[in-house]
Amino acid sequence: MVMKTSTIGLQQLLHEWDHGKTKTREKILSNFISRHKDDSGPDLEAEFAEAGSLFLTRITTWLRLTYLLGGNIKIQLDAIKVFLSASCGQRYLSEFLEVGGILTVLEILGLKTAKEEDKSSAMELLETISNCGRKYKEVICESYGVRAAAECMARSYTSQTQECGRSLLYSLAHGNPRYQKQVYQVLKDLLPSTNPGTQRVAAQGLRHIQKLVGPPTQALVENVLALLRSLYSDVQYEASELLKELVGHDEVREVVIVGLIALLTPLLDDVIRPPVSDTPLPQHLQQAAAAKVLGLMTENSNLLATIAVENGAVQSLIVVLSNVRHPPSQQHAARTLSYLVRMFTEVHETLKECLGSELLDEFLKSPEEIHKKLTPTQLDKLISNNTQVILAQNSSDDEDMELLQMTEEITVQ
C-alpha cells in the first residue's frame, strides 16, 4: 500500500519542485507516474493531502512554459495523463481545460521540434480527454483537433504516432454526431497520401467509422481501389478489408465489383512482355490484389458472383491467367475462377473451351498450379480471348435474385 503524503510532506515536495532544475523535476515526475498511474481521483487526493490540484497546476504551467523550447515533453504529458485518466477525477479535467490545456497539447502536434514520442503522448492525452464524454470531444473538435491530428499523421513515418492518431480520430467520431462527418472526411482525405503508414491507418479508420456516417460514395471507392497498387502489403490488406466493408452497401456494391474487374486487365503490352527484372510492376500488384479480393467477395456470395460474371469478370480473369510476369496474379485469378466455375455452368463451359477438357480437370483439382502447365499456345489463346459469359435468366432466376438482394447478408471472412 502506498504511503500517503502528509501536509508537511506535500510542502516539501512542492518546495523541491519549485526550486528544482529540469533533472530534478523529471525525476519527480518519473516517480509520480510509476507510483500513481493506476490511481483513482480520490486516491490521488488522499496521496497529496487533498491538494493534488496544486501539483497538477505546477506540471501544466511548466509544460506551457517549456514545450516550445524542447526538452522532455513526453514525461510532462504522461504525468498530466495520470490525473486526467483517474476515475472520479473530473475536477482535474476541468482545471486542465480552464487553463487552455487542450490548445497547448494541440500545438505540440504541429511542432517541428517535437519528437515523435512527444506527439504520440500528446494524442494519447487527447484521446483520454475525448473518452471522458461528448462535451470534451466537441471541445477538441472546436479547437481544430481533427485537422491537427490528421496533419500530424500525414507528416509522421512512425507507426506509433500513426496508430495513436487513428485511435484518437476513432474516439472523436464515436458518440459525437456533430463532428462525425468531419472525422470521416479527414480520413478520406488521407487516403491519397504518399505516406504508406498514413494510408494504412486511414483505411483502417474508415472501415470502423463507415457504418456511423451513412452510405459511401463512388469517389471513396475509387480512392480505396487505388491503394491496391501500393508496394506495401499492409496497405493492400487494409484497402481490401475496407472494400469488403463497402461492398455490403447497396449504393456502391456494383461500383466496387466493376472497379475490381477494371484493375484485372492492365495494358496488354504489360501482360505479354517478357520479364526484365524480378520487381513486379505496380499494376501487377494491383491486378493480383484485385483478383484476390474479388475471390474473397464472390466465394460465399451468389449475389456478388452474379454481378461479377455479368460485368465481364470471367473474361478478365482468363487474361490474368496469362500474365507470366507475375505468378501471384495468375494464382489469385485461378482461385477466383475456380469459385465461379463451380457456381455457374456457363463459366464452366467457357473455361472448358479455353483450356480443353483435360486441362480443365487438372485446373479443378489444383487451380493455383495451373499456370505452371500452360503452353505458349494456350497462353496466346488466353490473352486474345474475348469470351462474354451470359448467364441464363428465367422467371425463377429473377425471383431468386430479388430474394437474394433483399435477404443476403454480405459477410466475407
Topology:
Layout: H1 7-19, H2 22-36, H3 41-47, H4 52-66, H5 73-84, H6 90-98, H7 101-109, H8 116-130, H9 134-142, H10 145-155, H11 159-173, H12 180-190, H13 196-209, H14 218-226, H15 233-246, H16 253-262, H17 268-272, H18 282-298, H19 302-310, H20 313-320, H21 327-343, H22 345-355, H23 357-365, H24 376-383, H25 395-407
What does this structure look like?
The protein has 413 residues and is mainly α. The chain has helices at 7-19, 22-36, 41-47, 52-66, 73-84, 90-98, 101-109, 116-130, 134-142, 145-155, 159-173, 180-190, 196-209, 218-226, 233-246, 253-262, 268-272, 282-298, 302-310, 313-320, 327-343, 345-355, 357-365, 376-383, 395-407. Helix 7 packs antiparallel against helix 8 (116-130) and helix 22 (345-355) packs across helix 23. The chain starts with 6 loop residues before the first helix and ends in a 6-residue tail after the last helix.
Brief digest:
The protein has 413 residues and is mainly alpha-helical. The protein has helices at residues 7-19, 22-36, 41-47, 52-66, 73-84, 90-98, 101-109, 116-130, 134-142, 145-155, 159-173, 180-190, 196-209, 218-226, 233-246, 253-262, 268-272, 282-298, 302-310, 313-320, 327-343, 345-355, 357-365, 376-383, 395-407.
Task: Fill in the keyword field for this structure.
413 residues; mainly alpha; 25 helices; 69% helix; 0% strand
Number of strands: 0
Mean pLDDT: 87
- Major sheet summary line: none
Estimated helix fraction: 55-70%
Gyration radius (Cα, Å) is: 29 Å
Uncertain residue ranges: 394-400, 409-413
| Distance from first to last alpha carbon | 48 Å
**SSE ordering:** HHHHHHHHHHHHHHHHHHHHHHHHH
Helix tally equals 25
Principal-axes shape call: elongated
Structural class: mainly alpha
Strand percentage: under 5%
